[in-house]
């Protein structure tokens, strides 16, 4: 099977690494890829937001299966364009990707399906939004409706912060994503990520994780795309997992099918858990980054069979083989991230790292220059390890991180603290 993966971050490196272990995988191409991915696959420089260009490339390279990593191509309808061209695709249609691309869409689906989530109101007018905030008081959560690269959510602890967020969003600081806002009840509790494959009808849970969104130790500092993660999430007990499936995931999938826009791909459910009850925070329509790195390390090569069955609407035939193990990933980021940071700094010490089914340094934002690996993004490396316990995975991952010689990078020293 010739496989094309779209994306070029740590998530896609871990997907490529897992897919490659499956004997079904003949040729593997990743577009655009990165320096780490280039060590295990061919990389192709194509515009992954251009469905026509991806379809042409896939035809020219006799691709049998396309796996879409990030949300942007999904929201742009790339999966639809590829399916129209007769290709087998892992990833939802543009319509179904609304579950991530529009907060108000997801809220309406929750209303229709009865999935528990925060109470909310939807505004296109700044004055009406301000009046609602004054009426509700703080804490309160203000969200830009559309995709805003993880920056469109303001959890306001004071009314003044919430009002300032409205000013920003209607001033255009979030681009088109801010022309509409959703204002939500603040939920407290413990957050967890739950990943479920859906083929439009059947659902198959494939793991849980928790991530660390803040830049610095003790969950302090600015919000980021994620500074580390571990899987499984201890808060996702069997009882809570079952509740999440029957009260949130299944009703959502049923509602999407009823609307004539079935969801096919991986549904990433962000949950808030309190007093034994999960509520939906948000959906994403792709794997989490860096949560995926932990999941791929735990699932290995079987993930290709699972994704293929998902795309072929055969999930009812499948089951996941679980080892009773744990994985943890540490994100190494460029100093200054998520603010401004330098690009092109040299990373040493990668050659001596172990690379096996228990230990991998996935590349997130790297490039190769004159035979050296350099940093090309904010989040740069994902040091990932697996063990029989979370403590073992933690110890291994930190031992690896310490051997990486990169003066211009930093990482948190407390990934997994809540579960350890
Ligand atoms: P989202 O992009 O919707 O996942 O929001 C980003 C983060 O904001 C979430 O992971 C939560 O930590 C937080 N958040 C979002 N909505 C709420 C809410 N209603 N109550 C409390 N925290 C929230
Ligand atoms: N780590 C959170 C996300 O991928 O959205």
Characterize the biggest β-sheet: 9 strands, antiparallel
The dominant shape is globular
The termini sit apart by 41 Å
Number of DSSP strand runs: 23
Radius of gyration: 21 Å
Structural class: alpha+beta
**Low-confidence segments, ≥5 residues, pLDDT <50?**
none
Task: Output mean pLDDT.
Answer: 95
The proportion of residues forming helix, as a percent range, comes to 25-40%
Heteromolecules bound: adenosine monophosphate, glycine
β-sheet strand percentage: 25-35%
Oligomer: single chain
Number of helices: 12
Provide an overview of this structure:
The protein has twelve helices and 23 strands. The chain has helices spanning 10-20, 51-60, 71-75, 78-84, 98-101, 103-113, 126-136, 159-170, 238-258, 291-299, 302-311, 390-402; strands spanning 3-7, 28-32, 42-43, 65-68, 88-90, 120-123, 140-144, 153-156, 181-185, 190-199, 203-211, 214-216, 220-223, 228-231, 264-274, 277-284, 326-334, 346-347, 359-363, 366-369, 372-375, 379-387, 409-410. The strands form five sheets. Strands 10, 11, 14, 15, 16, 17, 19, 22 and 23 form a nine-stranded antiparallel sheet that branches. It is α+β, with helices and mostly antiparallel strands. Helix 2 packs across helix 4 (78-84), helix 6 crosses helix 9 and helix 7 runs antiparallel to helix 8. The site of glycine has 7 residues, from loops.
